[in-house]
Amino acid sequence: MHLLDFGAQTDKGAIRALNEDSILAVPPVFVVADGVGGSDGGEVASALVVEEFGELARRPVIDADGVREAIEKANTRVRALHGDQLHGASSTAVGAVGVMSEDEPYWVVFNIGDSRIYRLPALAPDDEPDRSRELVQISVDHSHVQELVDAGVITAEEAETHPDRNLVTRAVGGEETAEADFWMIPMVPGDRWLICSDGLLADLSLEAVQDRVRQPTSADETARDLIAMALRAAVSDNVSAIVIDVVGSSEHSDAVEPTTVQPHPGK
């Protein structure tokens, strides 16, 4: 498994009184969950999602089946809340989990809902150092506006300001079975990954986020700056960001220790 440098931050935002986002950054497990459901239902739902992935992170061997199992367990636990005066509580879930497959390191990337994961590819050996790398969205939004975009009813630009842009069509706890999408992606040294709740792009353009992620600062500093940018833009939603750098082979470097994620000041 390659070494990973990372930073993870979350904040309730400029307007919300409660932070319903939950995040987990315990290598090789990285997850953002954005709770929905009103009252404290969303907060509880997202916490259950990261709790299940926290259990996964403690396993001696992590594989793709374990990722699916964590989502299924979280779905069952969130649905159980519906009988405890938290009817409608649910959560998005997006993340990347490092696994070994045929002796090679891979990411199991998954999402359900409209939280997102992006990849900033490593520079190829023949690339110029100042080449402008672009963020590539890996996840697919499970949202009403994305369905409208896919059907050609509205454009992607119109979706950004559509009144129904916050309506998700899939969520953990939404149905008996959680329909997540999955990808197996090689873990490549030099890649940078961004995992975020939809609040990050609620009041920031993708271009502004991309420009910041491209800068050669540490993953931790990048994550902190992204949250600070959102707060300066008076973000109306909760906002979370995890930035991961794939550093290189563990055979040639010191290990990166897991860190405890602390909310950004102002929570």
From TrEMBL:
Residues 5-246 form the PPM-type phosphatase domain. One of its GO terms (molecular function) is protein serine/threonine phosphatase activity. SUPFAM superfamilies: PP2C-like. It comes from the Bacteria. Transmembrane segments: none annotated. This is Serine/threonine protein phosphatase. It comes from Microlunatus endophyticus.
